[in-house]
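Researcher: Next entry: Methylamine utilization protein (Dyella ginsengisoli).
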Amino acid sequence: MATVPAAAAPSLPEPAAPPETRKPVAVAARAPSKTAVLSPNPAAAASDAALELRGRLTLTAGRGQALVPGELVDSVVYYVPASGAPRPRAGRFNIYTLNRDFKPAAMAVPIGSTVRFVNQDEVRHNVFSVTPGSSFDLGYQAPGQSADRVLNRAGVVLVSCNVHRSMETDVLVVPSAYAAKVGADGRFVLRGLPAGAGKLYFWNPRGALGVKAITLPASGEVSVSVQAVRPRVLTEIDVGSAP
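Model: Predicted structure:
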């Protein structure tokens, strides 16, 4: 898959908390039109707030791109109040290198999660990222080897292979328990939010991470849009759960 730089979201403080073990998800061959893993919306964080934020995300086709029915379910929204958000429960996830490609080619995980990169290929790989604030280099991995990386900075992390420059996977690190997947119709609802100013972030693997300033309570439905600038890919989407 051709490398397309991903826009980095504004960084948030890096709270440290040990990840909770989550059953690894085995990913087989690429299936461009299918989502690998679905997860339920997280429960609202315990608080006295009872505000809701309802909205709809639309996906528009960029130049040379075609939209596929049902791909809105790969989208993620999360809200970060100006006063700060409770962090979601972290987990453990796998990304595989197979047939000189990353599988899945896009992923969303809660902040603090551990991602294990497993080489299932018959050749060596060198997984790395130069994303500001999230850079790392796991060194060369021989067939069968694996290496872990804890992702503690919010936003999209672009991961590549130093051996095979065409390889790319994007990992969205979700820093807030006020998060949800988007429905098949593009609609979403976030509950239990505090009043006041904040920012709504929205993302689909085919485009960049977007952000919109919000003041709660909001009147009516919020509309946001992502432009598809790359083909659809196999994804794994998990926004975590309330702590």
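Model: Note for the record: The two ends are 35 Å apart (CA to CA).
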